[in-house]
Amino acid sequence: QVQLVESGGGLAQPGGSLRLSCVASGFTFSDKAMSWARQAPGKGLEWVSGIKSDGSATYYLDSVKGRLTISRDNAKNTVYLQMNNLEPEDTALYCCGNHDYDTVDDPVDEWGQGTLLTVSS
Questions:
Q1: Three-state DSSP state, 105
Q2: CA atoms within a 13 Å half-sphere pointing along the CA-CB vector of 86
Q3: Do 116 and 40 touch, CB atoms closer than 8 A?
Q4: CA 73, 12, 81 angle in degrees (round to 5)?
Q5: Residues 87-117: tens digit of each pLDDT
Q6: pLDDT by residue (tens digit) across 41-76?
Q7: Could you tell me which residues come within 8 angstroms of residue 74 by beta carbon, excluding any fewer than 6 positions away?
């Protein structure tokens, strides 16, 4: 079965940097687009970024462009989210998801349990 295991969250200071990781198993990782989404306290799940199966195209929520970078290593079945210049508004549970096919236009099959990021001084 599909397993998505996120890591890398924790407590970070405003202006700092952090890299989240998501290790996938149970499907052919290199065939599927991947996305990151976040859920802030008391709010719904918000899509943040996505990447095509071969890494040739990336997509971002407008409000995070220039601060977040998504990447993937298909040899390691891992997708990353590099987060720079962190803001308190980035505080959320960050989850990765696998799309049904190779583009982010395709529906997300499953979301992982997430890793919690708290940005606070």
A1: coil
A2: 23
A3: no
A4: 20
A5: 999 999 999 999 999 999 999 999 999 999 9
A6: 999 999 999 999 999 999 999 999 999 999 999 999
A7: 29, 30, 54, 55
Query: Comparing C-alpha atoms, which of 90, 99, 104, 105 is closest to residue 14?
Result: 90
What the block records as the tokens of 36 is 């990151």
pLDDT score for 65: 95
Rounded Cα gap, residues 115 and 58, in angstroms? 21
Residue that has been written with the tokens 């943040």 in this structure: 48
Distance CA 51, CA 74 (A): 12
Residue entry with tokens 């709010």: 43
Q: How many CB atoms lie within 10 A of CB 32?
A: 23
Phi, psi of 43 (to 5 degrees): -125, 170
